[in-house]
Every structure is written in C-alpha cells, then in structure tokens.
Design goal:
The mean pLDDT is 95. The chain has helices spanning 19-24, 26-38, 54-63, 67-84, 98-113, 197-205, 212-223, 260-278, 283-290, 310-323, 357-363, 366-375, 387-416, 429-450, 454-475, 477-483, 485-506, 511-520, 532-535, 557-566; strands spanning 3-8, 42-49, 91-94, 117-127, 132-133, 139-142, 151-152, 169-173, 181-191, 231-232, 234-235, 244-245, 248-249, 257-258, 299-306, 333-337, 340-342, 345-346, 383-385. The strands form 6 sheets. Strands 3-2-1-15-16 form a 5-stranded parallel beta sheet, with helices on both faces. A 4-stranded antiparallel beta sheet has the order 5-4-9-10. A 3-stranded antiparallel beta sheet has the order 7-6-8, with no helix packed on it. 47% of the residues lie in helices and 15% in strands. The protein is built from 20 helices and 19 strands. The chain is α/β, with parallel strands linked by helices. The structure holds zinc ion (ZN).
Length: 572
C-alpha cells in the first residue's frame, strides 16, 4: 500500500465552471484518486475554491452582496455540483479559510527571514471615486498605439500592445467610470524567484518522467528572455489574506493583502488541515501528508491542472516551498492538460460559451459526461467537443457495448433460469481464451491508469467491454440453450460475473453506473481483481441478482439537435 496525495487545481470562485475546466483538472484527478483507492492505496484528495482577488470582489458587487457572503454562497454551489459529478474529494476547502490565512502568513514570514522577499516602491493608480487602488486591468482608456478607446491598463485588446496604465490617454476606472484618478506611491512585496532560479532549474531537470507539456512550459519561464523574474505577491485590496510576517505585523504593509496567486496553491496544504479540522483530527493527521519530518517522506504527491496553471505549479509554488527552508513536501508528478474547445471555438466563462457543469447535469447524468470527457481528454493536444461526437461515443461505448451487455445477459438469464446465477456446464476453450485475453487487457489498463494516460486507459477499458460482447456473440447462449441448457448456463454464469467484473473496473470512470450494476448483481465484493479467473467466479451458482434498470439510454438525433441549438448561443 502506498500513500498518495492528489490535488486538483482549485477553481476560481466567481461562477459555475464549464466542461473544459472540469476535464482540465478536477475530473482526471478524481479518476486517478478513485483508481488509487480501488488498488488499496491510502489516498488524500484535496480541492478547494480560489476565493481572493479583484474578480471575486467585482462579481460580488455585481451580485449586490458582500464579498464574504458571495464567496460562501458560491462555494456551496460549486461544492454541490462537484458532488453531483461524483468528484470524490476528501475535502473541498476554501482559500479564504483561517487555515490558509495562517499558513500564507507563515510562508511569507519564512521567506522574509530567508532573504527572499524584497520591498519595492511602486507607483499605482488610485481612484478617489472608488476609494481604492486599481489593478492595471481595471483601468481603461484610449490606446496610444492604435486609438482603440477601450484599451486596458495592461494591454490593448485591439492591437495587443502591452501597456502601462500611465500610457493610456484619458484613463478612467473600469469599475465606476470615474476619471478622478491619481498616481500614488505604494510599497509592495516581491518574491525573489530569480534567487531560486538555479535550484528550481536543477529540480525540474531531475523530473525526467514528467510530461513534456509540463517541463517545456517550466523551462520556457526559467530561461526565455531575462529568465525567471521576481513576482509581486501583494495587492492594495480589502479582500484577501492580510499581509503579515508570520504572526507579526509587517511595518509599511498595513491594509494590504497577499496577491491571490501566492495564497491559492498554499490552500492545498491548508485544505488538508481543514480536512483534519472537519474530522476532529489533530495537526499530526494532516502534517503526515505534508511534512517530510512528520511522516510524509513516503508520500507520492501528484498535481492535476490545465496548462495555463503550469508556471505557478512548477516555479512559483515550489519557490515558496523551497524558500521556506522547512521540510514541506514538494510535488512528485504534475499531470497537465491542453484545452478542450467547444464546437469550433473556445469554451468561455466570461462570454458564457459552451456547456457549464450545472447545465450538463440538467440534461444527462454525470457518468455520460465523465465518460466522454475522460475518453477524449486533451492530453497531447487540444480536443474538441462536438454534439455529434458526444452522441456517437455515448451510444456506441456506453449504450451498445457496456449497457447492452449487462442487459442481454441478465434478461436472458431471467427468462430461462430465473434471477439467480445458473449452475451446470463447464468452461471450455472459448472461456479459457477469454480469461487469458482479459488478463492481458486488465494489466494494460492498470499500466495506463498508473501512468495517468487517461485516453489510453479509456480505450483499454472499452476493449475489455468489447471482448465480453464478442465472446457472448460468438458463444450464442440463446442458440446453445435449445440443445444444451447446461452448456448455455455456463456461458451465462460467466456473463453475469463479467457484469460484476466490468462494474468494478469501470468505477473510476463511471462511478454511479458501476454502483448501480454492483447493486443489481447484489455483489458484496467489489475488490479490484488480481486474478481474472478468480474474479469471474465471484458470483457462485444460485447467487441471486436483479435485472438492472436501463444503465445507459441512447441519445437520439432529436436530442442532439435540441441540445446543439440550446447551447449554440451565449449563457445569460
Ligand atoms: Zn491598441
């Protein structure tokens, strides 16, 4: 038994996530967590909402709510949807927790003590009407380069020129529209990532088993241009973790908070502490996952994320951990994903384009989405969601192959032998060959799951389902029954055991359907199979079962057309 710590990139608080977000981190992390548990490992699977920063403040203002109340509400919404998608987090935390506050302040204090924080005086735009400093992207004005009148303080969207807010002609606040702005001096903290560049570089070099997508992004940030840059870790905002040096005040930093990218990854640790708190456990319970001096030396830590999050997780967060000088656990493996596109364009939260998690569950159960998303995961390149592909995949894989197999075997048994596993007959060469084939496929499936090759694992699992169907088709118990009911009974006995076998193997992908099938088979043993022949005799003669309800319904052409139409526009 191994101990495996799994974290999914934490979704931002402002709104419900779309399917592209889901397949880029939470869903494959859940697949892996479920698989690791099924193999008998001790797993800690942590996710959370990322709650700080200006976008949360603005979304709360738009909703007419105090930001803390808004975040609490959205956390509950995201938590409920995660639950309904079968995401099996051990804890779904909040980056605004007291635990994260204390840990973020602790790390900043450690970094300061080790000379890795620099105080920098900067000039920043202050809005009198809004009573606050404005982040660059919340200042609008006319682009000095192309004359576009809605250029932002960090970049002109029209001509893509990178800008400073002071470059804008007639600048105004994007929050209130006020032009009563003033440039003021203000002090900020910078994490001296450049001082850790060689250490980070050597660490990345040691990760020879990481996906190229992950290491190439890290290397680019380490070496392109002037190399790894120091990063600001504070902001002039009200909402966030107050800047402190450990538990001490930080002179000159009153009224400032840590920038969201600094505190968000620390929430992986804090979320584990929140898990301990929620379960009435002491600090030792979570520290044994995170402190190599307190039991975490044998933990394997795996992170899941979309490619846009790779720089933070390969460089910035490790810089925080390494720079602390304390024995905190560093990540062992980073699984990153490309993007899922939607019907010829991008999924977009800001534009409401694509299918969002709540909408998906309104039209079909989670397992339909889980299967399609995972079997089409954007691993080696971007992947595209189309309604045609979704319909074909659900109908072929889930309805025709898996669902149909379970239905045929159980219904045939009921009509000829009753609702209990029939005795009689014996396995012949066809059954021996099937067991050998399934053994080979199962070991390949395990290999892909261990390697987190999500698409390959899905293809292998489908192959395992297909092998049973082909066997059943060739063995033709409905024909054999007419002349030799005992021989047909042996075929059906194997078939019923295959239904249980499939439910066990498929659970990481489609947990609800798997649980339904296990319940229908009245299977008490859902252990991961080591020996296939043994697993296929788990349900003995006379073991009673129920014919499962329709496991997967087919998507009709008219459903597909309706949904394509319904989701063609923009979510309001
Ligand atoms: Zn421009």
């Amino acid at each position: 038994m191994a101990r495996i710590l799994i974290t999914s990139a934490i979704p931002y608080i402002n709104g419900i996530k779309h399917l592209g977000n889901l397949v880029g981190s939470q869903l494959p992390a859940d697949l892996y967590a479920r698989y690791c548990r099924a193999r008998g490992n001790e797993v800690m699977f942590i996710c959370a909402t990322d709650e700080h920063g200006t976008p949360a403040e603005l979304a709360a203002a738009k909703a007419g709510k105090p930001v803390a109340a808004y975040c609490a509400e959205m956390h509950a919404v995201q938590s409920d949807i995660a639950d309904r998608f079968g995401l099996s987090f051990d804890h779904f935390g909040r980056s605004s927790s007291e635990r994260n506050k204390a840990l973020t302040q602790y790390f900043a204090g450690q970094l300061a003590e080790n000379g890795l924080i620099e105080e920098v005086e900067e000039s920043q735009v202050y809005s009198h009407a809004d009573g606050r400093f404005l982040p660059d992207r919340y200042i609008e004005g006319t682009c000095p380069n192309c004359g576009y009148d809605k250029a932002r303080g960090d970049q002109c969207e029209n001509c893509t020129k990178q800008l400073d807010p002071t470059d804008l002609i007639e600048p105004r606040s994007a929050i209130s529209g006020s032009t009563d702005l003033e440039v003021r001096a203000t002090k900020h903290l910078y994490l001296r990532q450049s001082a850790l560049k060689d250490q980070l570089d050597a660490w990345i070099d040691s990760k020879t088993d990481w996906p190229v997508l992950t290491t190439s992004i890290a290397k680019k940030w380490l070496h392109d241009g002037d190399g790894l840059q120091d990063r600001g870790i504070t902001r002039d905002l009200d909402w966030g973790v107050p800047v402190k040096k450990g538990t001490e005040d930080w002179p000159g930093m009153e009224g400032k908070v840590f920038y969201v990218w600094f505190d968000a990854p620390i929430e992986y640790i804090a979320g584990t502490a929140e898990w301990a708190d929620a379960n009435g456990l002491d600090d030792a319970a979570w520290e044994r996952w995170w402190r190599t001096d307190k039991g975490a030396e044998d933990v394997r830590y795996v992170q899941f994320m979309g490619k846009d999050n790779v720089p933070f997780h390969t460089l910035s967060f490790p810089a925080t951990i390494m720079g602390s000088g304390a024995p905190w656990k560093l990540v062992d493996y980073i699984k990153s994903f490309n993007y899922l596109t939607y019907d010829g364009g991008q999924f977009s939260t800001s534009q409401g384009r694509g299918v969002f998690m709540d909408q998906a569950l309104e039209i079909l159960p989670a397992d339909y989405w889980r299967w399609w998303l995972l079997s089409h995961a954007p691993e080696n390149s971007d992947a595209e969601f189309t309604w045609e592909n979704f319909q074909a995949s659900v109908n072929k894989d889930l309805a025709d192959v898996l669902g149909n197999f379970a239905s045929r075997v159980t219904k045939f048994c009921r009509s000829k032998y009753g609702e209990a596993v029939p005795g009689g007959g014996a396995y012949g060469p066809a059954e021996v060959a099937l067991i050998a084939d399934l053994t080979e496929k199962l070991r390949a499936y395990e290999g892909h799951m261990d390697a987190m090759d999500v698409r390959k694992a899905a293809a292998e699992l489908r192959g395992i389902w297909v092998a049973g169907n082909e066997y059943l088709q060739a063995a033709a118990p409905w024909t054999v029954f007419k002349t030799d009911p005992d021989a047909a009974a042996a075929i059906i006995r194997l078939g019923l055991n295959l239904v249980r076998f499939y439910a066990v193997l498929s659970a990481p992908f489609i947990p609800t359907a798997s649980a339904d099938l296990l319940r229908a088979m009245r299977a008490e043993d859902a252990q991961w199979p080591e020996d296939v022949a043994e697993a296929l005799s788990a349900l003995p003669p006379e073991h009673a079962f129920d014919v499962p309800e329709v496991t997967f319904a087919k998507i009709t052409d008219s459903d597909r057309e309706d949904w394509a139409e319904r989701f063609s526009g923009i979510r309001s």
